[in-house]
Amino acid sequence: MKATTATLEPRTVGSISGEFFIPAYQRGYRWGEQEVRLLLDDITEAAGGDYYLQPVVVKQLAGGDRSELVDGQQRLTTLYLILRAIKRYLPFTELPYSLSYETRPGSATYLDNPTEDGSLENIDYFHIYAASQCIDAWFASRPNPTTAAMKLYEGLTESVRVIWYEAPSTEEFDSRTLFTRLNIGQIPLTDAELVKAFLLSRVERQFETAAQWDSIERDLRAPQVWAFATGQPDGGATRISLLLDTLADAEDDNVHDWHVRPAFRTFETLRPLIVKDGQALWDRVVDLHSLILGWHDDRDLFHKIGYLVAARRATFSALVRDARGTTKTEFHARLDRQIRDSLRLSANDLAALTYQSTKTSRVLLLMNAETVRRNTNSSERYSFDAHAQRLWSREHIHAQNSQGLNTVDQWTTWLKEHRDALDALDLSTQSLADIKSRIDIAVPTITAEKFEALHQEITQLFSDAADTVDPDDPGSTEHSEVDSITNLALLASTDNSVLNNSVFEVKRRRVIALDRNGAYIPVCTRNAFLKYYTDAGAQLHFWGPRDRDGYLAAMQTVLAPYLLEDRPGSTSEDEEEITL
Prior knowledge:
This protein is of the alpha/beta class and 580 residues long. It has helices at residues 33-46, 73-89, 107-112, 123-140, 145-158, 175-183, 191-200, 206-220, 223-230, 241-251, 265-297, 299-310, 316-323, 328-343, 347-352, 360-374, 384-388, 408-421, 429-442, 448-461, 477-480, 497-500, 504-516, 523-529, 545-558; strands at residues 7-12, 18-22, 51-60, 67-71, 97-101, 160-167, 392-396, 488-492. It has a six-stranded mixed beta sheet, sandwiched between helices. It has a two-stranded antiparallel ribbon with strand order 7-8.
């Protein structure tokens, strides 16, 4: 009797039975030594633990005595050759299934006895024979081949599984079309897709559930929602996996031991819950979806959670566990503690941070997120989406060295950009004309020596009088202030060394131009270059001590709720980085 509905289930290799037909539209067997050895080693290393192979897709043929193998022929053919090798060491074992290729009428017979002479008949037999020889060599390399065969057979019959998908034997499930779509990724058999197929076979309101599923997937594809919840710019084929993985994590006490989530672990964890009550599990998915959107729409939670996730101090799954059973006030207090723990800095520690400090990027991120959050009169939100895309990095507000400027093009561009910016300085007409003339003369025949001399002169003109740089003095501004957090901001990430090594005025002009064009500029970066942190009357065109002091004072004020009390002997680098 033909199947009219899809069947989806994990199945041990030992329980696979029947005759499988491989149609002509598929290419023949092509696995090489690397793939065969990897499969053998993986099964052995699983050592009795659950191990999942990639999905196998079949469709029952007319008559019901055979099935078409739509996807998975490489795996099933290799497994057949392994079972055949095991039988030589363990004669009592059976070969529960058989394979035949439409393009090779004698293929079933050859699989039972691959010979060197026969391997010359066609390319499929060549690869089948090579795989058989590889398997024989693998057994021969074991200290005791019979023991190895026993362990391998035990694994194949008890713990090694495939995700078995039997497509309905109906006209709309055309095998050739199904095969093509599977192999170009239009039907990705991910955990989420497997859960969806199994769930829809177990709930009464299938169409309603499928529509809800698609709606949730669309919501989670909004870049700002996804980046807020995961800290990632994209999420692969399915975004609803975030919710399904979270539910699976709640059922598994060993989740923290995973360095990489095992294949199909979420599906296998949720499958018994779907069997027990599919609707109840789906209701939990819907609740999680509502929770994530609720957190996203709450500006306070959006910025606090977004910071913790972006800074890799929390995951959505862990935050869901923390929120369980708490009031809104208690949850906010927990978030505040986590933010405080992510810094573990006093006001003095904060002032001592430098470009090289591990916590500097974290402080700059929190400063921006908190500045936006605290502005209750604005609807602006920090762009965790842009942050996740690594559009920004910590850069000097005012650069004072030429590190990274090594080519004629870089020297020329730097001089031209800074020549234009000289108009902003309070120079006499003669002085301005003189330096511009020397730049114009030097550019056509620029050398490292000429550039370095002009670079030092121009940089000094844009530096505050108190910021005199002596490269031989470890206590000079170059060493004590340039790399200080008071001279750092989140700026557009770029491989352009010219911009990275530009003085304040050149960068200020670039920020203003981007702002005019509607680009999103991190709020504290915009504030710094527009001198919001500096008392009235300050020079607009360079970044000096008054600017740095005002910037630091603003940081200490905005981040005060998350700073520790100053204490003797404290240091900003007491805490090791946490790996999530």
